[in-house]
């Protein structure tokens, strides 16, 4: 069974995490599939928008740490890095529907989404500091822009989880939707956008992100710092403790 489920409907490509036995933790194979489905959909004239979701009980617990550490060289060809820069380069709108845990990359990827909806069970966390790491996916630039420096500092420097209600107050998500309506509601929003003139939609998205080239440079700086932190003794100890207590 594929760990990523894909379905195209009414101009929307639905991409769903499908690894519930591991809380949808993203391994390298999943990163490769995610990137391939997004790139193909971005050039497919039948696709006007993407919907990213998990199960009604879990979005994603973040990276599969053991698998992630198997390929420690975080260069441009690393599947996780390819995915992050793919998110940055998407021309078409990306909508996310979040239920349950959205940890690490599960939260930072939302910063690249154009619309984000969640149900009341959603719980977000940016735990990089707890693992002796720095943020990724441009979070250290995007989060202060979105929520203000002091709030971003609180989220990134404490690594504490926060609720859907808090995320809405921080403007990280558009709205909170009833759990049994979340996917249908989010899909309908994606279908609405997909029904609009595609060139105008893509140009509007691009015009709202004039800082994209700067963000690309910033993401590379983050990656350089992340790589150094990942090789530190403290990070190794934190990862070992994490894997022992899973």
From TrEMBL:
Localization recorded for this chain is: Peroxisome
The GO terms describing molecular function are: delta(3)-delta(2)-enoyl-CoA isomerase activity; enoyl-CoA hydratase activity
Key words of the record: Isomerase, Lyase, Peroxisome
What name goes with this protein?
Enoyl-CoA hydratase
| EC supergroup of this enzyme | lyase
Point out the coiled-coil segments of this chain. none
Q: Which residues form the signal peptide?
A: none
Chief site of localization: other
**One Pfam family this chain carries?**
ECH_1
Is Lyase given among the entry's keywords?
yes
Q: What is its EC number?
A: 4.2.1.17
Report TM segments.
none
